[in-house]
């Protein structure tokens, strides 16, 4: 049977709702008995059939108002009760199911993680626990009783407040939880296990004391402190910036080893991938520290944007995700460097979201058609979704945006809402017309802005002409004009900023692009200016303006906007790569341009002013980032040219790099912004120096002198990428030291998988047998197989097809054990239209092989179908 698609336009209110649930879990990894007592209310008087979602358990029976009930029909995904002669509109159903958590490798529903048991219900995992109206617009109050062996599972956790507990004669104990807030089933959670517990409290702005509890594997208590600090910072920030206060008396976070994604915002009981909880200087890099803080904050922020106000249907996912990503980005920006955060987010968006829009899975931030919901937790829904919120913020300004938030919350608290509810609240609270802006929710694709300019010396006038175009995408042929906020600035040749004026009046630096072609004229411009276009990346678009190298160097040197300075360097790098790729493809000698050299010299010479920005600016874009500026990608050529550039830059700037490297040495490791900036800058210098004759000694010393993971990994990375003599001994040393810790070994696996060596695939295959590797653990699979496929394009796209064959072999296994992880890993294989014919044929063959599987999961089915179209 072919999986069926659901359409946004088909949304209908449910005929029945569930107002209360009492869940009783007799927990055991081999056999868990669940008794669910639902209070059901009929909302449509005509309705005579109640269809409940459910699968992947053994159904034990159903009672209606306490009496055994048999007028039902069952299929692979549901139970439909015949309620033709229903006497009252309110009744009780008692449903019993039997689960086998230890056998559940999908990591959805109730499953075993290490020695513990936990749940993952979003998007549609609750239905793997029991039959339920498993849709986000059914909001119920949950009470949950958990019973399990006390020695194996001393902690029994669920949502809300602990209201009772007791012991049984047979060595089991039980705990009962009550969540006073109405919630959809996807926010339900259970955890049972033995943990180390870090406790703290937070006093809210209205003076309530909230218990904070972080549960980690035994032995990891010392790695939980940063997560706790992050949580408190997030709680405080949400009060200060958004006026939002936490609502329950307890907030729990549990770190588990086996988890399909980053974390989950279950009401009052977040469940986290341990990767986003655990951090200490020895095991976590600066980047990991930032990742922990931002995911902790993201899940916390969901308490309002997601939980108190949830989504009416899954097509509205961006309502909670786009908004919550925007909120976590703002949190990081307010606490650390706004410019650096913006640059990192834009890098990510350009590399992954632009690629998604250009591929077979293109969809608007509010999709219209879905087969497997888990496939739509995408960079488009999340990151482009956040860009759309950010544009609203730009158009309204902070004050009106916050007024809009207040209105949105006042109108929708306790409800399941739509994206339209949000935009409408923003519009009414601010008085800003968002009619055309709404199209961002329904149109997929990356708009292109083409800019040309004219300077009229006599009239002292400067004109910008801007055209917008969104090309057809895989999902949508017809495109319309969007409302695009384009933030600009003008600079003189001397680097001075020119005021934006029309006649003598100042004009806004945010241009409203709404038509296909528009011209903006600025007056009193005394010399031909250099335009800074798309300051702060004010819209998620591609920008095309024919900058000269001189103009880019002017921007790099003088633009006030840090994003513009960084982006000028990105353009220089990309131009350099393109020119040399051309030469390489023609069999000509590659050359290193003076323009790029002067630009990088300027950056290095000014690095002391802002080492973080210098680090970001000097960093050579990854192969996958470069790839996005081509419609047909040459993975081999890009790797060769990038390597050439790396070596050429290192040679040309060696003296400056070594001075900078030595100047930025730090006496001790501290997680503070200034030090992190210096470390990042110093490690970028190291990454270049590795390609010079100083490399081997320097990197070897860097590794052995490191007292923290950031420096250790920087050395290991440099040694691997530059294929230094010390590489093998350093890799072996790390392996020996960290073999016991899978999370740390993930860094090592990912490095191995991205080695530039010819035989990297052999290495990767070999590492599938490594004692720290575990095929059942998604983190390990992503680190080794995921990194190979997504971050080593030259090897993955090897022209003999070996990379594709390897990935397909792995996907065949994952298709049966964990389709959700399989569906993430397949991404680099479905973007075949971006490659030459020979590669396309090979990729096609791999996809056909998967398509032929007789148990192909809907997750893979959806992507393969689209890719082969
Ligand atoms: N809401 C979860 C993601 C659930 C993914 C389900 N496949 C984490 C987050 O976005 O906060
Ligand atoms: Zn989220």
From TrEMBL:
Aminopeptidase N is involved in the degradation of intracellular peptides generated by protein breakdown during normal growth as well as in response to nutrient starvation. InterPro entries: Aminopeptidase_N-like_N (IPR045357), Aminopeptidase_N-like_N_sf (IPR042097), PepN_Ig-like_sf (IPR038438), Peptidase_M1 (IPR001930), Peptidase_M1_dom (IPR014782), Peptidase_M1_pepN (IPR012779), Peptidase_M1_pepN_C (IPR024601), Peptidase_M1_pepN_C_sf (IPR037144). Residues 19-187 form the Aminopeptidase N-like N-terminal domain. Its cofactor is Zn(2+). GO terms for molecular function: alanyl aminopeptidase activity; metallopeptidase activity; zinc ion binding. Belongs to the peptidase M1 family. Residues 445-546 form the Peptidase M1 alanyl aminopeptidase Ig-like fold domain. Keywords: Aminopeptidase, Hydrolase, Metal-binding, Metalloprotease, Protease, Zinc. NCBIfam families: pepN_proteo. Its EC number is 3.4.11.2. Residues 226-440 form the Peptidase M1 membrane alanine aminopeptidase domain. It catalyses: Release of an N-terminal amino acid, Xaa-|-Yaa- from a peptide, amide or arylamide. Xaa is preferably Ala, but may be most amino acids including Pro (slow action). When a terminal hydrophobic residue is followed by a prolyl residue, the two may be released as an intact Xaa-Pro dipeptide. One of its GO terms (biological process) is proteolysis. Pfam families: DUF3458, DUF3458_C, Peptidase_M1, Peptidase_M1_N. Residues 550-869 form the Peptidase M1 alanyl aminopeptidase C-terminal domain. This is Aminopeptidase N. It is an enzyme of class 3 (hydrolase).
């Amino acid at each position: 049977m072919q999986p069926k698609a659901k359409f946004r336009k088909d949304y209908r209110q449910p005929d029945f709702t569930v107002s209360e649930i009492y869940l009783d879990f007799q927990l055991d990894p081999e056999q868990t008995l669940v008794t669910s007592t639902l209070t059901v209310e009929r909302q449509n008087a005509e309705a005579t059939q109640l269809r409940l979602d459910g699968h992947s358990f053994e159904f034990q029976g159903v009672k209606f108002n306490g009496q055994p009930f048999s007028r039902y029909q069952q299929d692979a995904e549901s139970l439909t009760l015949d309620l033709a002669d229903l006497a009252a509109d309110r009744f009780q159903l008692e449903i019993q199911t039997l689960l086998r958590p230890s056998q559940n490798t999908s990591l959805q529903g109730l499953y075993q993680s290490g020695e513990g048991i936990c749940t993952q219900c979003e998007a549609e995992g609750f239905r793997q626990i029991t039959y339920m109206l498993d849709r986000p617009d059914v909001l119920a109050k949950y009470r949950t009783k958990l019973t399990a062996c006390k020695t194996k599972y001393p902690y029994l956790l669920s949502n809300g407040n602990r209201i009772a507990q007791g012991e049984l004669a047979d060595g089991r104990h039980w705990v009962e939880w009550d969540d006073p807030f109405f919630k959809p089933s996807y926010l339900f959670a259970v955890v049972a296990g033995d943990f180390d517990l870090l406790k703290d409290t937070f006093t809210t702005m209205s003076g309530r004391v909230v218990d904070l509890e972080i549960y980690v594997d035994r032995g990891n208590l010392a790695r939980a402190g940063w997560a706790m600090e992050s949580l408190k910072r997030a709680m405080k920030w949400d009060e200060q910036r958004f006026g939002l206060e936490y609502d329950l008396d307890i907030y729990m976070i549990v770190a588990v080893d086996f988890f399909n994604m980053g974390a989950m915002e279950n009401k009052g009981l977040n469940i986290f991938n341990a990767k986003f909880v655990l951090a200490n200087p020895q095991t976590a890099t600066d980047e990991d520290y930032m990742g922990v803080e931002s995911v902790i904050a993201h899940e916390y922020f969901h308490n309002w944007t997601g939980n108190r106000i949830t989504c009416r249907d899954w097509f509205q996912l961006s309502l909670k995700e786009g908004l919550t990503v925007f909120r976590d980005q703002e949190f990081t920006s307010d606490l650390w460097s706004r410019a650096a955060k913006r640059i990192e987010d834009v890098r990510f968006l350009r590399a992954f979201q632009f690629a998604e829009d250009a591929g077979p899975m293109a969809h608007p931030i509010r999709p219209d058609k879905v087969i497997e919901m888990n496939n739509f937790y995408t960079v488009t829904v999340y990151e482009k979704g956040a860009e759309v919120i950010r544009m609203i913020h730009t158009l309204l300004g902070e004050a009106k945006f916050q007024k809009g938030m207040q209105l949105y919350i006042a109108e929708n608290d306790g409800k399941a809402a739509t994206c339209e509810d949000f935009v409408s609240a923003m519009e009414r609270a601010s008085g800003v017309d968002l009619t055309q802006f709404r199209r961002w929710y329904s149109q997929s694709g990356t708009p292109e802005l083409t800019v040309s300019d004219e300077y009229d010396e006599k009239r002292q006038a400067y004109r910008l002409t801007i055209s917008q175009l969104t090309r057809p995408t895989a999902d949508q042929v017809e495109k319309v004009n969007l409302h695009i906020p384009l933030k600009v600035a003008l600079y003189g040749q001397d680097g001075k900023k020119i005021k934006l004026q029309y006649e003598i009046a100042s004009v806004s630096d945010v241009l409203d692009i709404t038509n296909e072609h528009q011209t903006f004229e600025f007056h009193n411009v005394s010399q031909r200016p250099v335009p800074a276009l798309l300051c702060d990346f004010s819209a998620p678009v591609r920008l095309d303006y024919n900058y000269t190298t001189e103009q880019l160097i002017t921007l790099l040197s003088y633009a006030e906007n840090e994003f513009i300075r960084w982006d000028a360097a990105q353009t220089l790098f990309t131009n350099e790569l393109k020119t040399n790729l051309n030469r390489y493809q023609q069999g000509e000698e590659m050359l290193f341009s003076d323009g790029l050299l002067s630009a990088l010299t300027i950056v290095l010479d000014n690095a002391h002013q802002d080492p973080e920005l210098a680090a970001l600016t000097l960093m050579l874009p990854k192969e996958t980032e470069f790839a996005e500026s081509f419609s047909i990608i040459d993975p081999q050529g890009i790797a060769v040219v990038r390597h050439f550039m790396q070596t050429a830059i290192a040679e040309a700037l060696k003296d400056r790099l070594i001075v900078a490297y030595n100047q930025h040495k730090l006496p001790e490791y501290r997680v503070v912004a200034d030090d992190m900036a210096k470390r990042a800058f110093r490690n970028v210098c190291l990454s270049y120096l590795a390609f010079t004759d100083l490399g081997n000694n320097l990197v070897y010393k860097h590794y052995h002198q490191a007292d923290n993971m950031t420096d250790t990994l920087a050395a290991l990375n440099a040694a691997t990428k530059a294929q230094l003599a010390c590489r093998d001994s350093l890799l072996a040393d790390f392996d020996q030291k960290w073999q016991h810790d899978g999370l740390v070994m993930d860094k090592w696996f990912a490095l191995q998988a991205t080695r530039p060596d010819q035989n990297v695939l052999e290495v990767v295959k070999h590492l599938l047998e490594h004692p720290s590797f575990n095929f059942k653990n998604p983190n390990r699979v992503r680190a080794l197989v995921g990194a190979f496929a997504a971050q080593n394009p030259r090897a993955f796209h090897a022209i003999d097809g070996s990379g594709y064959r390897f990935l397909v072999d792995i996907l065949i296994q994952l298709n049966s054990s964990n389709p959700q992880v399989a569906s993430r890993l397949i991404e680099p294989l479905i973007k075949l239209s971006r490659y030459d014919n020979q590669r396309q044929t090979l990729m096609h063959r791999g996809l056909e092989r998967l398509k032929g599987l007789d148990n192909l999961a809907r997750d893979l089915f959806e992507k393969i179908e689209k890719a082969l179209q």
